[in-house]
Amino acid sequence: MKPWNIEICDVTLRDGEQTPGVSFTRDEKMAIALMLDEIGVEVIEAGFPVVSPAEKECVAAIARSGLDARVCCLARALRPDIEAALDCDVDIVSIFIATSDLHIRHKYRRPREEVLEDALNMVEFASDHGVQVRFAAEDASRTDPAFLVEMYNRGAECGADLLSFADTVGYLTPLEIHAVVSKILAEAPHPLCIHCHDDLGFAAANTITAAAAGAFQLHTTVNGIGERAGNAALEQVLVALRMKGGIDRYDLSRLQEISRLVAQVSGIYPDQVRPIVGENAFAHESGIHIAAILEDPSTYESIPPELVGGERRFVLGKHTGKRALEHIANAYGFNLSDEQARWVLGQIKQRSEGKCSVTREVLCEFLRQAKEGIPQ
Ligand SMILES: CC(=O)SCCNC(=O)CCNC(=O)[C@H](O)C(C)(C)COP(=O)(O)OP(=O)(O)OC[C@H]1O[C@@H](n2cnc3c(N)ncnc32)[C@H](O)[C@@H]1OP(=O)(O)O
Ligand SMILES: O=C(O)CCC(=O)C(=O)O
C-alpha cells in the first residue's frame, strides 16, 4: 500500500488550551512539545502570541528550542498579530479569517470581499517576511464553496504555503467532508489542512476521511481536548493512519504516556471508554472474549495494546467465564477442580450483580475458601 501523503499539525498547545478552564504553564507547554516532537509530529502549533505576554514568551521559547518539528502559531488577519508571531521566530504563521456569511455578518460586519482583500494583504505581509504561511478558513464547513475556492486560490497566489479548512463547529459527517475536500482540491489544488471539531463525535473520522480524500496537513489534539466537545484526537488519528493509511513513522508507543501528561496538566481526564487512552480501551470481562483472547488476542483486539504503550487487563464480574477464571486463578497460584471453579464463578457473579467489584483480594479469598472446602 502506498502511504498517504500527510503530515500532522498538533494543536494541543493552542486549540487544546482553548478548552474552557485550561491554561498551560511554560514548562507544561515545553514538556508537551518535546513529547510530540519525540513521537514524530511534523508541526506543533505552540499558541496564539497576542493572547498575553506570557503566551508570546511560551511560543518563542518553543520555536527557539531546537525541535525537529516546525513550530506554528495563530494570528488573526491583523498586522499586530502577525508582527507578534514574527517576533517569536516561528516557522509557520497561521493567519485565519472566518469565511461563512454567518460569521462575517456577526463578527466583521463588512462585505466578505473586503474581509478577503484585507486578509490577502496580511498573507503577503507575512510571506514577505520569509515565514511559511497557512491561510485558514474558520467555519469553512458552513461557507459558500465558491468563496472558499476563491480564497484558497488567491491565498496561494499571495504566498500562502498551506490552506486550511476548519469544521469549526463540528458540523459535517464523513461523507460530507469527503465530498467537500475532493471538490476543493479539484478546484484549488494546493496543500490543504483539515481542522475538525467533535461536536457530532466525528472529528477523528472526518480527519481520516479528509486525508483519504487528499488533505495533507491533519490537525489533532492529545486526548481530543479543545473548544466545546474538542478536536480530532491525536491518538485516534495516528493509530488510524498506521492501520489504514500505511504510515508507520510515528512512535505510537508513547501515546498513552502523552495522554497521561496532557490529562494531568489540563485536568481533563479521558473517559473510561475512550479509544486507545481510556482505562477500558484494553480491558475485557466477557468470558467468551477472554477464552478466545487466551488463544489469540487479535480475536477481540484490533489494536494491540503494546502498540500504543498500553496493557491488556482482565476484569472479573458478572460476565466472567470458566476459562478466564482458571487463567486468572492459575496466575495467582491456584489450580481449581471443576466443582471449585463453578462455586467461585457463582460467588463472583453474585458479588458483581450486587454492584460490588471483584478485586484481587476478594478473588483470592474466594479461591482460598474453595480450596479449604466449599461452604455448604
Ligand atoms: C476558531 C478559533 O479557535 S479562533 C481562535 C479563538 N481563540 C481565542 O479567542 C484565544 C483567546 N482570545 C483572546 O485572548 C482575545 O480574544 C484576543 C487577545 C485574541 C483579542 O482580544 P480583544 O482585542 O479584547 O477582542 P475580543 O476578543 O473582544 O474580540 C475579537 C475581535 O477580533 C476580531 N477578529 C476575530 N477574528 C478575526 C480575524 N480572523 N481577523 C481579524 N480580526 C478578527 C473580531 O472582529 C473582534 O474585533 P472587534 O473588537 O473590533 O469587534
Ligand atoms: O484551520 C485552522 O488552522 C484553525 C481554525 C480553528 O481553530 C477553528 O476554526 O476551530
State the gist of this model.
This protein has 376 residues and is of the alpha/beta class. The protein is built from 14 helices and ten strands.
List keywords for this structure.
alpha/beta; 14 helices; Recoverin, domain 1; 376 residues; eight-stranded parallel β-barrel; two-stranded parallel sheet; binds 2-oxoglutaric acid
Describe the structure.
- The chain has helices at 26-39, 53-63, 79-87, 101-108, 112-128, 145-157, 174-187, 203-212, 234-244, 255-266, 287-295, 322-331, 338-353, 360-372, and strands spanning 7-10, 43-47, 70-76, 92-98, 132-138, 162-167, 192-196, 217-220, 283-284, 313-314.
- It has 376 residues and is an alpha/beta fold.
- The strands form two sheets. An eight-stranded parallel barrel has the order 1-2-3-4-5-6-7-8, surrounded by seven helices. Strands 9-10 form a two-stranded parallel sheet.
- The termini are far apart.
- The longest helix is centred in the first third of the chain and has 17 residues, at 112-128.
- It folds into two domains: 7-266, TIM Barrel (Alpha-Beta Barrel); 284-372, Recoverin, domain 1, CATH 1.10.238.
- It is elongated, with a radius of gyration of 25 Å.
- Helix 1 (26-39) links the parallel strand 1 (7-10) and strand 2 (43-47).
- Helix 7 (174-187) runs parallel beside helix 8 (203-212), helix 8 runs parallel beside helix 9 and helix 13 packs antiparallel against helix 14.
- Acetyl coenzyme *A (ACO) is lined by residues 15, 18, 48, 50-51, 76-78, 96-97, 107-108, 138, 168.
- Residues 6-256 form the Pyruvate carboxyltransferase domain.
- Its EC number is 2.3.3.13.
